[in-house]
Amino acid sequence: MFKDMFKGMPKIFWVGMCIMYGWCLGFMFLEMTIPGLPLKQLFGVPACYIYNWIFGLWIINIIVSFLYFYMEEKREERLEQKLGQK
Q1: Is 8:60 a contact under the CB 8 Å cutoff?
Q2: Where are the domains of the chain?
Q3: Cα 32 vs. chain centroid, distance in angstroms?
Q4: I need a labelling partner for 5 at 20 to 30 A (CA). Which of 12, 14, 48, 63 fits?
Q5: Cα 84 from Cα 54, distance rounded (Å)
Q6: Which is nearest to 24 in space by CA: 51, 64, 50, 43?
Q7: Are 68 and 12 spatial neighbours (Cβ–Cβ below 8 Å)?
Q8: How far is Cα 73 from Cα 48, in angstroms, rounded to an integer?
């Protein structure tokens, strides 16, 4: 059942999933182990709002979406070259 569910997914999909979930799990681990980390003040607001808003919602998603777009373009070029050679 699950064996065929992700069959044919591009490798960049897994890279993007590792980046996004790695960020989430990494900071979840840091927030659970460092006392008071999420509520430390940075520019007058809790630090977790800043790093999750700026990095978690903007920068990481922009990087991952660029990678998805760029790698898909490269994959299409390789497929066109293979079809053109045959």
Answers
A1: no
A2: 39-86
A3: 21
A4: 63
A5: 44
A6: 51
A7: yes
A8: 35
User: Which residue type, as a one-letter code, is found at position 29?
Assistant: F
In angstroms, how far is the first alpha carbon of the chain from the final one?
35
Model's pTM, two decimal places? 0.72
Each residue of 33-80: pLDDT tens digit?
Answer: 988 887 888 788 888 888 888 888 999 999 999 999 998 888 888 888
Structure-token pair, residue 86: 């045959």
Residue 36, φ and ψ in degrees, nearest 5: 75, 5
